[in-house]
Design goal:
The chain has about 270 residues and is mainly α. Helices cover about 65% and strands about 0% of the residues.
């Protein structure tokens, strides 16, 4: 799964909005540690690792040592495993999902997104459902995209329905990956994404929903495909935000369906689109 495009509209990547004022924060501790230690969202720092690199292997060895250390060392180790995969890290990462420090919990979630394990599914879902910190839940919503074969579909749908905007936008994005594992998951994912595209109050969430629907389209049965096209056309014509309209148009164009492209051209010819 790719890192977010900060501009969002009209891109191949989903929109990422840090919107910290909407998140449920642990007072003082989280604010101070975010400013001093993270210097941004750990997700922004995740890059594909260089496979077969001796440097990466040495860094993982260091990361394992750091994870067994104190608070500062654990944070350094967590950053390493947000970038690199190493199954040896999993037994050290799992206990950190219960760390009192929200920075450690959040970073452990991202690290487990990079290093997915079946043992992480249950504790990650527990955090998504009940952690009081929005940054942690946002991290879980992102990470669950890498657990597509696990029972994460319904928890992500619920987060898209009821959580804060920063969590909803990543739940929408992850549903594209989870739903792409087969029609049985694609259909309910698409149903919720169409609803969010229609009613969500945040443009960033609607934009991500449009992007995700475009990604899910090939996995849907034909009647649901038609419904997705209709929903995207409606958004293209009626949404109040230009960024959402642009994302809906891009999603339609990338379907590469002749009848859809012809419909778009008709809308241009009729002056409804520029």
């Amino acid at each position: 799964m790719n890192a977010p495009d900060q501009e969002g509209a009209g891109s191949w990547q989903p929109y990422d909005e840090n919107a910290s004022h909407e998140l449920v924060l642990d007072p003082e501790v989280l604010a101070a540690e975010l400013a001093q230690e993270l210097l941004g969202d750990p997700l922004d720092e995740i890059e594909p690792e260089a496979s077969g690199s001796a440097d990466a292997a040495a860094e993982c060895d260091l990361g394992l040592t750091l994870l067994a250390g104190g608070h500062e060392q654990r944070l350094q180790g967590l950053r390493i495993f947000c970038e690199h995969r190493d199954p040896r890290a999993i037994p050290l990462l799992l206990p950190l999902l219960e760390a009192p420090c929200p920075i450690e919990r959040m970073s452990a979630v991202y690290a487990l997104g990079r290093n997915p394990s079946p043992m992480a599914v249950e504790p990650l879902l527990a955090l998504l459902a009940a952690d009081s910190n929005g940054y942690v839940r946002k991290a879980v919503a992102w990470s669950l995209a890498n657990f597509a074969d696990a029972p994460v579909l319904n928890p992500l749908i619920r987060s898209l329905q009821v959580d804060v905007a920063a969590v909803r936008l990543w739940a929408a994005t992850s549903l594209a990956d989870v739903g792409a594992t087969g029609a049985a998951k694609a259909d309910p994912a698409a149903a919720q994404l169409m609803q969010s595209l229609r009613i969500d109050s945040e443009a960033a969430v609607r934009s991500n929903s449009a992007w995700a629907l475009g990604r899910l389209y090939p996995d849907l049965v034909e009647p649901r495909q038609q419904a997705v096209v209709q929903a995207l056309v409606h958004t293209l014509l009626d949404d109040q935000e230009a960024s959402v309209r642009d994302e809906a148009r891009l999603a339609l164009e990338q379907l590469e369906q002749p009848e859809v492209l012809e419909r778009l051209q008709t809308l241009v010819d009729e002056g409804l689109l520029s």
